[in-house]
Amino acid sequence: MLLLLLSLLLLLLLSSSFYYYNTATATAAVASSSCYFYYYYYYYYYYYYYYYYYYYYYYYYYYYYYYNNNYYYYYYYYYNYYDNY
Fold this sequence. Notes:
- By secondary structure, this protein is an all-alpha fold.
- Helix content is about 90%, strand content about 0%.
- Keywords: Membrane, Signal, Transmembrane, Transmembrane helix.
Protein backbone atom coordinates (compact mmCIF):
# COMPACT_ATOMS: atom_id res chain seq x y z
CA MET A 1 0.00 0.00 0.00
CA LEU A 2 2.86 2.38 0.77
CA LEU A 3 4.59 1.39 -2.46
CA LEU A 4 1.40 2.17 -4.37
CA LEU A 5 1.16 5.61 -2.78
CA LEU A 6 4.81 6.33 -3.49
CA SER A 7 4.46 5.28 -7.13
CA LEU A 8 1.40 7.50 -7.50
CA LEU A 9 3.32 10.40 -5.98
CA LEU A 10 6.22 9.79 -8.38
CA LEU A 11 3.82 9.68 -11.30
CA LEU A 12 2.29 12.93 -10.11
CA LEU A 13 5.68 14.63 -9.95
CA LEU A 14 6.93 13.35 -13.32
CA SER A 15 3.95 14.17 -15.48
CA SER A 16 3.20 17.87 -15.53
CA SER A 17 0.75 17.84 -18.43
CA PHE A 18 -1.79 15.64 -16.58
CA TYR A 19 -1.42 17.38 -13.24
CA TYR A 20 -5.11 17.61 -12.37
CA TYR A 21 -5.82 14.08 -13.54
CA ASN A 22 -3.03 12.64 -11.41
CA THR A 23 -4.12 14.72 -8.43
CA ALA A 24 -7.58 13.24 -8.68
CA THR A 25 -6.10 9.75 -9.05
CA ALA A 26 -3.85 10.22 -6.03
CA THR A 27 -6.74 11.60 -3.99
CA ALA A 28 -8.88 8.62 -4.94
CA ALA A 29 -6.05 6.25 -4.04
CA VAL A 30 -5.58 7.87 -0.62
CA ALA A 31 -9.32 7.78 0.02
CA SER A 32 -9.44 4.15 -1.02
CA SER A 33 -6.53 3.23 1.24
CA SER A 34 -8.06 5.08 4.19
CA CYS A 35 -11.33 3.29 3.55
CA TYR A 36 -9.42 0.01 3.49
CA PHE A 37 -7.69 0.83 6.75
CA TYR A 38 -10.98 1.89 8.25
CA TYR A 39 -12.49 -1.41 7.14
CA TYR A 40 -9.51 -3.27 8.58
CA TYR A 41 -9.86 -1.35 11.85
CA TYR A 42 -13.56 -2.09 11.92
CA TYR A 43 -12.85 -5.75 11.25
CA TYR A 44 -10.24 -5.78 14.00
CA TYR A 45 -12.68 -4.08 16.35
CA TYR A 46 -15.31 -6.64 15.44
CA TYR A 47 -12.82 -9.44 16.05
CA TYR A 48 -11.90 -7.89 19.39
CA TYR A 49 -15.57 -7.58 20.27
CA TYR A 50 -16.10 -11.20 19.28
CA TYR A 51 -13.12 -12.20 21.39
CA TYR A 52 -14.52 -10.18 24.30
CA TYR A 53 -17.89 -11.85 23.82
CA TYR A 54 -16.20 -15.22 23.70
CA TYR A 55 -14.27 -14.38 26.86
CA TYR A 56 -17.46 -13.23 28.55
CA TYR A 57 -19.18 -16.44 27.48
CA TYR A 58 -16.25 -18.46 28.79
CA TYR A 59 -16.34 -16.54 32.04
CA TYR A 60 -20.08 -17.14 32.32
CA TYR A 61 -19.57 -20.82 31.58
CA TYR A 62 -16.81 -21.02 34.18
CA TYR A 63 -18.99 -19.23 36.72
CA TYR A 64 -21.89 -21.55 35.94
CA TYR A 65 -19.61 -24.56 36.24
CA TYR A 66 -18.26 -23.26 39.51
CA TYR A 67 -21.77 -22.62 40.73
CA ASN A 68 -22.79 -26.15 39.79
CA ASN A 69 -19.80 -27.64 41.53
CA ASN A 70 -20.47 -25.53 44.54
CA TYR A 71 -24.08 -26.61 44.50
CA TYR A 72 -23.12 -30.27 44.28
CA TYR A 73 -20.61 -29.76 47.02
CA TYR A 74 -23.30 -28.18 49.17
CA TYR A 75 -25.64 -31.02 48.36
CA TYR A 76 -22.94 -33.56 49.16
CA TYR A 77 -22.16 -31.83 52.43
CA TYR A 78 -25.83 -31.64 53.32
CA TYR A 79 -26.31 -35.29 52.45
CA ASN A 80 -23.33 -36.42 54.53
CA TYR A 81 -24.32 -34.23 57.42
CA TYR A 82 -27.71 -35.87 57.72
CA ASP A 83 -26.38 -39.26 56.87
CA ASN A 84 -24.32 -39.28 60.04
CA TYR A 85 -27.41 -39.18 62.22
